[in-house]
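Board notes (copied after class):
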Amino acid sequence: FSHVLVRSHECSFEEEKTSSARKDRHRDSSFESNVIVGSNISNKISGGSLFAYRVPENWKTDDIWERDVMATGFRVRGQIGNMINPGAPGFCYTFYPTLEGSKRWSRPFIGIAGDCAEAAYILRPDSESAQDGCGIDSSTKYALMCEIDCGGTVGSLAIGYGDCCSAPSEKGWAKIYMPSYENDKIFAMGMGSGEETDDFSFS
């Protein structure tokens, strides 16, 4: 492996006006995420963040591990139900969209449990930022693929490649499972090629 991913579990609260806007689950095209990823990150870190530390060649003796900020701006949505040790984001997970893994994909995707941000986030490799030649570790450059509003605390994620609850899905593509603790629900999202295909599996 080349990097160690570390997230700060920071208790920075979302602004009231932003929190009120999020209560409307029917978001329009003007919605903007609080989370800043990849080439959009400035020098300022805001809220909870995801960092990548490059593993040095002599990692047992070298005390300098270069750090890059992969994402920042994760903020807590304050509710009565999540006021015990609130913070964001939660755990992060690397995964490939399909079972072929590194045979098909050059870099893994990253799933982030927002914890008290009440959302899950999927980051995809950003090939454009990786070629900008700014002297920054290009392998840590990612873009926000999607933010999934779960309406409750999302402390962890699960990722698998099997069938999901008899729902049609493309074979071999990742399924992402997201809990919404206060609502006693688990949401599932299946990835796919985005193309029309007859290659669906049913449980």
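Comment from the instructor: The chain has two helices and 13 strands. The chain has a mean pLDDT of 82.
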